[in-house]
Automatic annotation (TrEMBL), chains A, C:
GO terms for cellular component: cytosol. Gene3D superfamilies: 1.20.1260.10. It comes from Litoreibacter roseus. InterPro entries: Aromatic_CoA_ox/epox, Ferritin-like, Ferritin-like_SF, PaaA_PaaC, PaaC. This is Phenylacetic acid degradation protein. GO terms for biological process: phenylacetate catabolic process.
Length: 250, 311, 250, 311
């Protein structure tokens, strides 16, 4: 198992899976402006996926394409964070998930801009502007909905409570991360934790939300060791055409 | 009425009417109906495509479809803004949609059943829409005309993308070819219906044409669409589902079979294959999002109050 | 196209699609007894599917099996009634759909017991007892929920209003049905209408429900000409393993 | 207390205690906890299997799984009835479950991720359950013992079906073999945890054993399960994920690594991979079905009233 390949899958599967979840909102947002913004976010994430998985396929050198990686792997070969495969829930739940990830992703991309691997640095630069915009938007929305009405505050609190145990996985490291750090391809994810908290905690405070005190962290997504039951259902939908009509071009 | 006469003269002279200017009630009402219906069509039109975004067969196709749906929501936004200049709010328009008092294009009451339908929707549905919309860039109401200019640019891009999907399908595996033909079979007549009933049966036509909020007759546009589309179908190697379709060497146009207008009126009445599902999806989105809209308004009000207090 | 094969697909796809929908309730019924009854109904329907599609595969004579027919056809090759692919909705909606179908199916099976095709007669006999039980149960439930509270009555009325336009397809005939009638394999479906109404209308009256007056009937399911958007999603789930792992045995 | 002594003597003599007979409060409370927890496990246990019913790979497998889930709901019913003989209603038990005051087996807080998990659940989870349940056929409380007799018969059938799935997978394609091994890797330790913590850490053990509502120690049963299961894994050609697993020639038993009890207590606390999803699914089913239960009760009351009036 090539650590660089694994690392790239983690990057690409994160954007793919989150992009897919966001795309499930199509035409069903609470406000027209949000329909536009959600489609735009999904579009950005799918574009980033093409870059990450495209490079992953090159690194693997087995003749697979980004599409092969996206549409012909089963759940256990996916390397996305558990947080990102969580079902959408209500709009607030979706935006809370987005915010917790965006605040991590911005650190991740910033660090990768200085990667010793020039291709990774290039993808990080190309993704950075979009990610900044996503973070601005998800933070504003979380604050607005947390601060809004008592109903919206309660909904956002329950979203935070439900999703918080999935945040910790973003900062866990394994031998893949260690190999990346040793080669100066990427820092250890733990380094993102402090700046992530510095971005997240004030926003949650402004949103009048209580940060859960339990630091238990679900894991098994980025290693692929144990995804949730939700991913398989997502893939059954996402991959249906490639699975049903093997070898066709679209 | 001299005011009305003056108004008509301005229109005849090719002038644009702008929001603050005087206009007849009927003109205003007709425009609201027409622009609102068009806006609703953009919004409801997201649903049949959204149905395949989660199943798009490649990352590229998924991205293209997302961009398209984003454009459509954007078109909805322009059009609601244009309607607002006539004194009706977006929320009022939504309410009328949800209560069944306003329509959206009946084409979106047909289901999208295979990936080829994403091609057919782009090729035929956007194609028919463009045929309707291009002349509306010259419509008499300024904000509407300007919205149409922006919209038409993007729509023709969508149509090319749709045709590109059809090309891939028509030149693909046997199953893909079958999907392409099946999509054409299902969408041909509904696309023809998009131009509305024959002008002799059309209620609003004459006055709307005088006011230049309708620029061509339904039959003219339908014929133009058939003339443009049939050679494209031939190029794709697909068969238009009309045994009587034939180039008329005298007129230079295609003779074709009219769609089943009984079906058209059935769909209009609510009995299309997807009317109930589409409206349920939109109402659920709207009702389910009420708490978000309330919260955003409350937050904005608090921010404004805090700002005032600080001053 | 062999009319007998088509006819058998219609029978088998009806039970397959409805059995699948019912199986989606697993573990989520409003009362434990209903969990048991729903699992039992789904089980009966899947068992009947094995018989119908098994015979269809034999008649086709192309080396396909019942499983091939169930798991390797795409939506447009399905021949089930549109009614049966409707999403479950709430429990009352599910039971209303079941009742409208059960009252038809009992007529269908009774007639097929006298089929000139002995295999069909045999399957009809084997299915008949289960179908009688299903009808007794769905009728009782519809009556109870219609008669129960004002909320339950309103829910059942809205289920009836939503599903009524899908009932008419059960009684439509095309050249397949004509061929079956000519060969005394099955009567024309229109013959089921009067006894169906004789069963359905008194039950709806006992349930204090108003029968919609519009006789518009959606169609396109049993011919396969135009299913609803729901069927494709159902099949993406149902067929995922056979599609993803072609040639495996399970 | 002479009453308690007499009660204990009856138990020691192998007599069954029946519902109307006197019993110590602790006996009753412990039984309610144990039977209720077992009943809840049957109900919640439908969910991880329901997760694959809609994706079962053949009609036969779908039918078998449906039959199994139906059995489990039936087991739940027997057990709730047994619990009701102790003076607690099914609705009260549900309420305690939903409020987190009663548990269900932690094993159902692990996800089912591939079809092989349907095999592993049958082989390992039902296997462990049977090991727990067979001795309970001789438990001192009559209704409970009789429920266990019916349940055990069906469970051993389920276990064989699970093993059959594992056989097919282990002897299947490379991907199927990988699924089978992966399922064993994920379910091995959670299955070992099903017997509960080591007896020295177990709260209720001593008294429960005296009362014969627990017949063996947790460690005894766990050892028995390992001894039975390891050869089956070998037969399947699968590797038990325990590097220190070894037959101890002296004792004749396998030496094995204890599961991670910290994980066990985490899951018990609510931090298992699926705790939140399982409880949400059950609560949604219960709350969403409230109108049905109310309507059924109202209808039954009306029918009864009508019958009385007619008499």
């Amino acid at each position: 198992m090539d650590p660089l390949f694994e690392f790239l899958l983690r990057q690409g599967d994160n954007t793919l899976v989150l992009g897919h979840r966001i795309s499930e909102w199509c035409g069903k947002a609470p406000v027209l402006e949000e329909d536009i913004a959600l489609a735009n976010t999904a579009l950005d994430l799918i574009g980033q996926t093409q870059m990450w998985l495209g490079y992953a396929a090159e690194v693997e050198g087995a003749g697979r394409t980004a599409d092969d990686l996206a549409f012909l792997r089963d759940a256990w070969d996916f390397r996305n964070l558990l947080l990102l495969e969580r079902p959408n829930g209500d709009f607030g739940h979706t935006m809370m998930r987005q915010f917790l990830f965006d605040a991590y992703q911005i650190q991740n991309l910033k660090a990768l801009e200085a990667s010793s691997d020039p291709r990774i640095a290039e993808i990080a630069v190309k993704s950075g502007k979009e990610a900044t915009y996503h973070l601005d938007r998800s933070r504003d929305t979380v604050i607005a909905l947390g601060d809004g009405t008592s109903e919206s505050n309660a909904r956002m609190q329950s979203a935070l409570d439900a999703l918080w145990p999935y945040a910790g996985e973003m900062f866990l490291a394994d031998e893949i991360d260690q190999a990346m750090a040793a080669d100066h391809i990427a820092p250890l994810p733990l380094e993102y934790r402090a700046p992530w908290e510095a971005a997240v905690l004030p926003a949650l405070a402004a949103a009048a939300l209580k940060v859960p005190q339990d630091d238990f962290a679900h894991q098994g997504g980025k290693t692929g060791r144990r995804h949730s039951e939700h991913l398989g259902h997502m893939l059954a939908t996402m991959q249906v055409l490639q699975r049903s009509y093997p070898g066709a071009t679209w | 009425d001299p005011q009305e006469r003056a108004f008509q003269e301005r229109i005849d002279a090719g002038e644009k009417i702008e929001p603050k200017e005087w206009m007849p009630d009927g003109y205003r009402k007709n425009l609201i109906r027409q622009i609102g219906q068009h806006a609703h069509s953009e919004i409801v039109g997201q649903l049949p495509e959204g149905n395949w975004i989660t199943r798009a067969p490649t990352l590229e196709r998924k991205a293209i479809l997302l961009a398209k749906v984003q454009d459509e929501a954007g078109h909805g936004l322009y059009l609601y803004c244009a309607a607002e200049t006539l004194g009706v709010s977006r929320d009022e328009l939504f309410e009328m949609l949800h209560e069944g008092k306003m329509k959206y294009s009946s084409i979106f009451n047909y289901p999208t059943l295979t990936w080829a339908d994403m091609g057919a929707v782009g090729w035929l549905v956007d194609g028919a829409a463009i045929m309707n919309q291009v002349p509306l860039q010259r419509t008499s109401y300024g904000p509407y005309a300007r919205a149409m200019i922006r919209i038409c640019k993007e729509e023709s891009f969508h149509q090319r993308q749709g045709f590109d999907i059809m090309m891939k399908m028509a030149n693909g595996t046997a199953a893909q070819k079958r999907m392409a033909q099946d999509a054409l079979d299902r969408f041909w007549y509904p696309a023809l219906m998009m131009f509305g009933p024959s002008d002799k049966d059309s209620v609003h036509s004459a006055q709307s044409m005088a006011w230049k909020i309708k620029m061509n007759t339904n039959d003219e546009l339908r014929q133009k669409f058939v003339d443009q589309t049939v050679p494209q179908a031939e190029y794709l190697g697909l068969t238009v589902p009309d045994n009587d379709l034939k180039k008329n060497e005298e007129t230079g146009h295609y003779d074709f079979t009219q769609p089943d207008w009984a079906e058209f009126f059935d769909v209009l009445k609510g009995n299309g294959p997807c009317n109930a599902d589409r409206m349920a999806a939109r109402k659920e989105a709207w009702d389910g999002g009420a708490w978000v809209r309330e919260a955003m308004a409350a937050h904005a009000a608090k921010k404004k109050a805090a700002k005032l207090a600080a001053e």
